[in-house]
Amino acid sequence: MELTEQDIAAVWLTLKLAGATTALLLLLGAPLAWWLAHTRCRFKVTLEALVALPLVLPPTVLGFYLLLAFAPDGVLGGPWHWLTGSGLAFTFTGLLIGSMLYSLPFVVQPLQSGFEQLDKGLLQAAATLGAGRVERFRRLVLPLCKRSVLTAITLGFTHTLGEFGVVLMIGGNIPGSTQVLSIVLYDQVETLDYARAHWLAGGLLLFSMLTLLLLYTSLRRRPVEIMH
User: Fold this and answer.
1) What angle do CA 188, 66, 44 make, to 5 degrees?
2) Residue 8: phi, psi to the nearest 5?
């Protein structure tokens, strides 16, 4: 059975959303994870709980409050409409923001765990030898936390692939714009098109399993190397 143009568009949109979400979470989540790993702020536990909240919060609840925030007079939708003249709800940008919030703990927590296990003595020695912050991060932090980074990338990407409740609430079901694979699969089940649903569901299952197998194999075999 061949995929339809609608299926292919949903596959591309889903991969685009997962890739953009993972990249932005690495860019924004790494500093947050570093701060959480080293801060002694008394509000650290509260912030960690907020980061982890999407793990236990029903996706539809998060999607509902994001939908309110994305309204033209909402806390996010208002400034966005003033700057761009367009809305956030039912757009790819809105999906991206929602996906970042929903997948936040899957990226931040592995990074934070890796940063907490770093030998601070190595960083202090590198600073004593004149290495700047960027150089220390590139030559020490990244190689030593490579496993945590790989885990964060894999979990962030694969988790975004399977989002349903959040994307349905804030993105709706607009083909070519906000219709991701999970929504297409839901539509096919609703119309009793189980044959095509098997193709999409099986493909997602196989891709997710292979990705995790590659991750665990890489974590077991790849030694930690210091970059020169």
Assistant:
1) 120
2) -65, -40
* Rounded Cα gap, residues 102 and 65, in angstroms: 12
C-alpha span between 111 and 36 (Å, rounded): 10
The candidate with the shortest Cα–Cα distance to 109, out of 30, 6, 12, is 30
Tell me how far apart the alpha carbons of residues 71 and 76 are, in angstroms, rounded to a whole number.
8
Tell me the C-alpha to C-alpha distance, in Å, between residue 165 and each of 5, 41, 199. 24, 34, 21
Q: What is the pLDDT of residues 83-114, one digit of tens each?
A: 998 889 999 999 999 999 999 999 999 999 99
As a whole number of angstroms, the distance between CA 73 and CA 175 comes to: 26
Rg for the chain (alpha carbons), in Å? Answer: 20
pTM of the model: 0.88
| 126 in Cβ contact with 89 (< 8 Å) | no
E strand or H helix that includes residue 85: none
- C-alpha 43/C-alpha 69 separation (Å) is 25
Instruction: Write the pLDDT tens digit of every residue in 171-194.
Output: 988 888 899 999 999 999 999 999
Residue with structure tokens 């761009």? 84
Compute the distance between CA of residue 101 and CA of residue 68 in angstroms, rounded to an integer.
15
Of 37, 226, 30, 26, nearest to 117 by C-alpha is: 37
Residue 119: what residue type? D
Helices (H), the chain: 5-38, 44-52, 59-69, 77-84, 92-116, 120-128, 133-136, 142-144, 146-161, 165-171, 181-190, 194-221
CB 87 within 8 A of CB 77: yes
CB atoms within 10 A of CB 125: 13
The SS3 of residue 171 is helix
